[in-house]
Specification:
single chain, about 350 residues, alpha+beta, YerB-like fold, eleven-stranded mixed β-sheet
């Protein structure tokens, strides 16, 4: 039994030696052969990053196509006296600027691109602040009424003017439910038809805002901000955590949209301190201002229930950007934005 086992082991040894000899015979002198039973890997597998969907430049929200975001922006001057409220379809504006006119009353410059309401208004007269705002968005400009000084500055700035002052009537209509001059409304579809007829550009490449899709933390949690534009116009924005928006109150009353019968809301509220230069006086002695919205100044950005302090800046050819004191960008939350433009001496209060 023992002898038989020894013969078997000897036979196995011979087979092993012959196998090694055969493998070595297949190699050139000085080479060794290594056989691996692991799968061969030429390179690591690379998974391509999914392409980002097209997004509206002024809201950061998803757009239906890359072509859609090239649609020309429309800027509409909208009244904010008591007789003008509630306004129609301001909630559908991507961006709204609010600033003081005469007698402490404020007026809006509402900017539309991602949504196209059929009716907007009431439309009122332009101010010198618009000569700064409109070129930053390369917008088609709509208003009704302006001083000779403002009309001259609009022309000098090369703005595409689609106002009643420019002799345009087709996109406008008067509402019988209100008295003049608080009853002029705009059809945005007809306005675009008019702009085509007048051979104005229908597309543009717009440098938009920078957005942050995941909220970052700030040092200041704020539930409301009060902005005293004047004794005649006090505004408060209160944060609603459920909708992640700020709800607007004007002079103690909810600020409503006539088209929806809902309170106006904003995803971002940006307080902008800007130079107000006395430009002229109206018939009753109230001062009108040239509000300088190019260059830079202080700002406070409110989003997601938080406050971010910093500076705003623009060279006048694109919308403003916002930076904190350490130079990092302050980004907006995707959605609509309201700019509250006030004098450097005005203080806001927060809770």
């Amino acid at each position: 039994m023992h002898l038989r086992r020894s013969r078997v082991l000897a036979a196995l040894l011979v087979v092993s030696l012959l196998s090694v000899a055969l493998l070595m015979a297949g190699c050139k002198k000085g080479e060794q052969s290594l056989v691996s039973y692991w799968p061969k890997a030429d390179k690591e597998r690379v998974v391509p990053k999914p392409a980002e969907p097209p997004r509206w430049p002024l809201t950061g929200l998803d757009a239906p196509s890359a072509e859609a975001i090239k649609l020309r922006v429309v800027s509409v001057k909208i009244e904010n006296s008591a007789a003008a409220r509630p306004q129609t379809n301001m909630q559908m504006a991507d961006v709204v600027y609010e600033s003081v006119t005469e007698g402490g009353i404020t007026r809006f410059n509402a900017i539309f691109q991602s949504q196209s309401p059929d009716t907007i208004g009431p439309v009122r007269s332009a101010r010198l602040s618009d000569v700064y705002i409109v070129p930053e968005y390369n917008a088609l400009f709509v208003f009704s009424g302006a001083s000779s000084t403002v009309n001259a500055r609009v022309k000098k700035a090369g703005i595409d003017n689609l106002s009643e002052d420019a002799g345009i009537s087709y996109p406008f209509s008067r509402s019988s439910s209100r008295s003049a001059p608080h009853n002029l409304y705009l059809s945005l579809a007809k306005l675009r038809e008019e702009s085509v007829k007048r051979k104005m550009d229908q597309t543009q490449s717009l440098a938009g805002f920078t957005f942050e899709r995941v909220s970052s933390e700030s040092t200041s949690a704020i539930t409301s901000v009060s902005i005293p534009f004047s004794t005649a116009n006090k505004v408060e924005w209160t944060y609603d955590a459920a909708s992640k928006t700020y709800l607007r109150v004007n002079n103690g009353k909810k600020f409503m949209d006539a088209a929806t019968n809902k309170q106006i809301s904003a995803r971002n509220v940006v307080v902008v301190w800007a130079q107000h230069k006395s430009a002229s006086q109206d018939k009753v002695g109230s001062t009108t201002y040239e509000i300088v919205l190019s260059g830079s100044g202080q700002c406070a950005v409110f989003r997601d229930g938080q406050r971010f302090d910093g500076t705003w800046a623009t060279d006048g050819t694109k919308p403003p950007s916002f930076k904190s004191q350490d130079g990092t960008l302050i980004k907006l939350s995707p959605g609509n934005t309201w700019f509250q433009v006030i004098q450097p001496s005005v203080n806001i209060t927060m809770k």
